[in-house]
Amino acid sequence: MSFPPRPPIGMPPMGYAYAPVGMMPMGLGMMPQPVMRPIVTTQSAVSQPAKPFNRKLIPQEIPKDEKEEKPPVTTVFVGNISDRAPDAMIRQMLQRCGNVLSWKRVQGASGKLQAFGFCEYEDPEATLRCMRLLNEWEIAEKKLVVKVDAKTKTLLDEYINKKKSRTGGVESEDKEKKENGDKEENETKLEEDLDEFTKREDRVAKAGLDAIMREYAEDLSKKMFMEVEKEPKPVKKKVEEEKIIKDTGIDDIDIEDDKREIIHREIKSFRDLHKVGISVD
């Protein structure tokens, strides 16, 4: 029995889809694609600035001293306010002295602002500064009057004594002098020895008051000019002098006494005759 002829050596037989081992298949002209490998580059170590850490700052709670008391609220009287001074101006001047809780300008029955009011301060230090700076402060040719009542003055005296005891500057006065002190002693208590911090605060407040006066200077001058124009001019009344004719008779006439008596008798008889005629009619 004969077998079919075989192809030459080195050629694949017919019907086989693979090439012999070690042989490259015929008809495949494509080159194998290179494998893509990631390129690794070495970068020089550069120190980057660290990003700031956003952290909310929370104020620390300062432990309060149990012995520390809240300062009392004090009220000051402000009077002799000029009509030309706007109420907003007075309010700003009071706020320059300290924290104002309320400012009440007294109004009349017609709603017109009066020349006085009451200012309530949160701190006695502000009240003392208001009395030091604004008392006798001149606005439109009128000087302010700033004062407190007896109760408020007692609170201010106590505040001054506590302040002195904390700073250790001056010893407190005797209780007998405090109870039986006269007006002069009370005034000296309000005018306490000021420390450097208080003096500096007073200078800053006074500079603010001067700035407010410059700010409202034009308004004050305008109001003064308008008041002069509105003032009615005095009307010159022509007074007619009435000539009073005095019935002096004939006493001033230079005549003899006998003739003067005769004339008097004639005048008297004429008058009597005239009266009789009227009564007859």
UniProtKB/TrEMBL annotation:
| Region of interest called Disordered, as start-end residue ranges on this chain | 166-191
Q: Which Gene3D superfamilies match?
A: 3.30.70.330
* Provenance organism: Magallana gigas
**Alphabetic keyword roster:** RNA-binding
Q: Which GO terms describe its cellular component?
A: spliceosomal complex
Q: Name one GO molecular function term.
A: mRNA binding
Q: Which Pfam families match?
A: RRM_1
State the name under which the record lists this protein: RRM domain-containing protein
Give any single GO term for biological process. Answer: regulation of alternative mRNA splicing, via spliceosome
Which spans does this entry mark as compositional bias, Basic and acidic residues?
A: 172-191
Show where the RRM domain sits: 74-151
